[in-house]
Amino acid sequence: MLHVLPKAADGHALPPQLLSPRPSLRQTVTTLQMPPRSTVFLEGFARGPQYRVIEGCVAVSQTLPDGRRQIIDMVGPGRLLGIGTGERNRCSAETLSYVVLEPVGKAEPVDLQAALHEMVLRGQALATLLGRKNAAERVASAILDLAGQFVRPAKGGKRGSICFTLYPTRGDLADWLGLTVETVSRCFTRLKRAGLIDFRQPEIVTLLKPEAMAQIAAGTATLANA
Amino acid sequence: MLHVLPKAADGHALPPQLLSPRPSLRQTVTTLQMPPRSTVFLEGFARGPQYRVIEGCVAVSQTLPDGRRQIIDMVGPGRLLGIGTGERNRCSAETLSYVVLEPVGKAEPVDLQAALHEMVLRGQALATLLGRKNAAERVASAILDLAGQFVRPAKGGKRGSICFTLYPTRGDLADWLGLTVETVSRCFTRLKRAGLIDFRQPEIVTLLKPEAMAQIAAGTATLANA
DNA sequence: CGATACGTTGATTGACTTCAACTAAGGTGG
DNA sequence: CCACCTTAGTTGAAGTCAATCAACGTATCG
User: Which nucleotides along chain D are within 7 A of a protein C-beta?
Assistant: First the structure.
């Protein structure tokens, strides 16, 4: 429940790098801590440094002129942020939890190519999801993806079930999946009623039937006959 | 009307590289010609070589288990095909016209990183389109993209108008834009009636008002008040 | 000449959005 | 400590955009 505690200063509409990623007191020489809802990069501003996410969850997004937002990727531990080549950021990046970042590229040579390639693959999967999947399939795909990136050490869960922290809010998920908050919420409710997931708080989710969920995500089974 | 002439053998469900990209009689030492509707790569099969598109149009796509298809990108002259790193192709690639390909990577060192980066950017733009744009905005975006990639030498067109060959069929566009054939067709009709484009044959399109089209694509204007 | 593929248009349906009301949890300040 | 506000989430009812279903025109091809 880390990300429920203190509230980040609202850095929106302000140049990034100057305000938001200010180091916390516990910063070590090589890492950077940021509170939830702070801005790592801001679309359109001068490109920032590259980071590896050590801990927490970051949402990478683009915004249309009229404010519609599309989250391009959810980035968890181990993955890279800000590998662009232009002068300016093409995407914004916002922390969805307490996040620990490590600047990269200095001493340690990262495999940029592999990271870029992973981004291409994830982008393609997202395009297929957005273009051709229905609401239930999208939500199921998202749950599987996030469960993979954010599993938490299982404390006595049943065999085969996966418990994870769902950092994005329903609204974040909607902006990722091309849906609305309400539709996302309804899908969660139906998945819960169908016994595929369980949650008391909306952000601690247990994936009870990963295989069934995968079937739904792929469109080879529907919620009706699951 | 190149791509209307002969019909390619249907390479679907057959291993690629063996059947489809057979060299034409006019093949030179370094390039490869392929007829319309032939398969360059097939999703799931062993990875093929990398090509640069010299001429024509190639559609890169993914398919869900039940057959729904999402076109990930339309690739025109100058751009690269098949820059993946796994063992198997993650996407299929199909020619939409007569296509001239040039194998790359041998003597000439290509800037793979730049190509990967371009793919990431285009993928992100597609995700935003699919997740957050309505039908008219999607079609407008597609027309602008294709006009850029496939302009033809203007022969006496009016100032500011751009004439191009629309290689993809309405069905291909639908699979690219996450719509149906009918919706794409209706959008074309409306854009034509609004005076933004013109066409006699459905595949030779003239973009009459690029700026107005860009407004629609961005969502800052609607077809109603254009 | 019939068969097939592509495109267009109209009528109807439906999945998701929009609008609205309500609950619960946290944070603030008197 | 409690009244008050804000934010997130859920649920229901109504509305809408695009999908589906259907019919038809045209061009190509065997």
Answer: 8-13, 17-22, 28-30
Say how far apart CA A78 and CA A51 lie, in whole Å. Answer: 10
**pLDDT of amino acid B212:** 98
As a whole number of angstroms, the distance between CA A181 and CA A173 comes to 8
Residue range B25-77, pLDDT digits in tens: 444 568 999 999 999 999 999 999 999 999 999 999 999 999 999 999 999 99
Scan for tokens 């200010």, then name that residue.
A22
CATH number at residue B161: 1.10.10.10
Rounded CA separation A126/B120 (Å): 12
The residue of chain B with its CA nearest to that of A128 is B70
- The pTM of the full predicted model, rounded to 2 decimals, is 0.88
User: Are residues A127 and B66, on separate chains, in Cβ contact within 8 Å?
Assistant: no
pLDDT score, position B65: 96
Which one of B112, B145, B175 terminates a domain? B112
Contacts of A188 (CB under 8 A, 6+ apart): A139, A170, A197, A199, A202
Contact A113 B112 (CB under 8 A): yes
Answer yes or no: do B11 and B104 share one domain.
yes
The pLDDT-based confidence of A157 (bands split at 50, 70, 90) is low
pLDDT band at A23 (very low <50, low <70, confident <90, very high): very low
Q: How many domains does chain A have?
A: 2
Q: Is pLDDT at B109 greater than 80 in this prediction?
A: no
Among the residues of B87-206, which ranges form H helices?
A: 112-132, 135-150, 170-177, 181-193
Give mean pLDDT, residues A54-83: 97
Residues of chain B found within 8 Å of residue A128, distances taken between Cβ atoms: 62, 64, 70, 72
Distance of C1' in C17 from CA in A29, Å? 48
- Nearest chain A residue to B64 by CA distance is A218
